[in-house]
Each structure stands twice: as structure tokens, then as C-alpha cells.
Design a protein that fits this description.
Blueprint: E1 18-19, E2 24-30, E3 35-41, E4 46-50, E5 55-62, E6 64-69, E7 75-80, E8 84-87, E9 93-97, E10 101-108, H1 112-116
Antiparallel strand pairs: 1-2, 2-3, 3-10, 4-9, 5-8, 5-10, 6-7, 6-9
Domain Cupin type-2: 38-103
Protein name: Cupin domain-containing protein
InterPro entries: Bacilysin_H2HPP_isomerase, Cupin_2, KdgF, RmlC-like_jellyroll, RmlC_Cupin_sf
Length: 125
């Protein structure tokens, strides 16, 4: 019989920042079926249009992001501190930081491209 899974305590300050570009960095915590990320975006940072099989919840702690959701120009949604945006699986989206922003992203299942570094759309060095 397998031993009982153990709880794991994480401290954000102990996790190194993965600096993806001059304007975007992140820290990741991954479980078996979900991923939690702190994403740091400087004002003007752009997350290019993309989509993924992962369901996404974005909670803005500080700042504001302007999202374009859907095909083409899509729907514009501005998400500010204290607000949460749910993005279903496979829905195209892009974002722009209207201010210096800290967001918490939750993904299920975990983003494999974020874990293995194959997320070239974000790595604009």
C-alpha cells in the first residue's frame, strides 16, 4: 500500500523568478492535477494571443490586465485588482498589462509547456 500523500508548504520568496522577458517573470507551484503561478508583468507587457487545453483562472492581486478573448479582435475584458477571470480550455486569448501587475494564474491540468520551457511565445529575450 502506498503511503499517505504529504502536504507541502511553499513560500513564494523561496521560489526563484523565471524571467521570461524584460517585462514578464513568474514563479510556479505544481501539484499532480493543477498549477499555481505568480506572474509579474511590467506596464506595457504583452502576452501574445495563444490557447491551451488547460482551464485557466486569473486572479489579479495588483494592477490591471486588458484581455482579448476569442477569435480575431475578440471581446475586450479589463481585469483589475480583486477581480478574477475564468478562461475555458482552448479559448484564444491575449493580454496587455495596463499597470505593473501581479496576477495569480491557476491551471488544470498543469501547463506542460511552462514546466519544460517550450513556451516560446512568452520567452521574448
Amino acid at each position: 500500500m502506498d503511503p499517505t500523500p504529504q502536504a507541502t508548504l511553499h513560500r513564494w520568496n523561496d521560489i526563484p523568478v523565471d524571467q521570461l522577458s524584460d517585462t514578464i517573470g513568474r514563479r510556479l507551484i505544481t501539484g499532480n492535477d493543477m498549477m499555481l503561478a505568480h506572474v509579474y508583468l511590467k506596464k506595457g507587457a504583452i502576452v501574445p494571443r495563444h490557447f491551451h487545453v488547460n482551464e485557466q483562472i486569473t486572479y489579479i492581486l495588483e494592477g490591471a490586465l486588458r484581455f482579448q478573448i476569442g477569435e480575431g479582435e475578440g471581446e475586450e475584458i479589463i481585469v483589475r485588482a480583486g477581480e478574477v477571470l475564468h478562461i475555458p480550455s482552448n479559448v484564444p486569448h491575449a493580454a496587455e498589462a495596463l499597470e505593473d501587475t501581479l496576477d495569480v494564474d491557476i491551471f488544470s491540468p498543469p501547463r506542460q509547456d511552462w514546466l519544460d520551457g517550450s513556451d516560446a511565445y512568452l520567452r521574448q529575450k
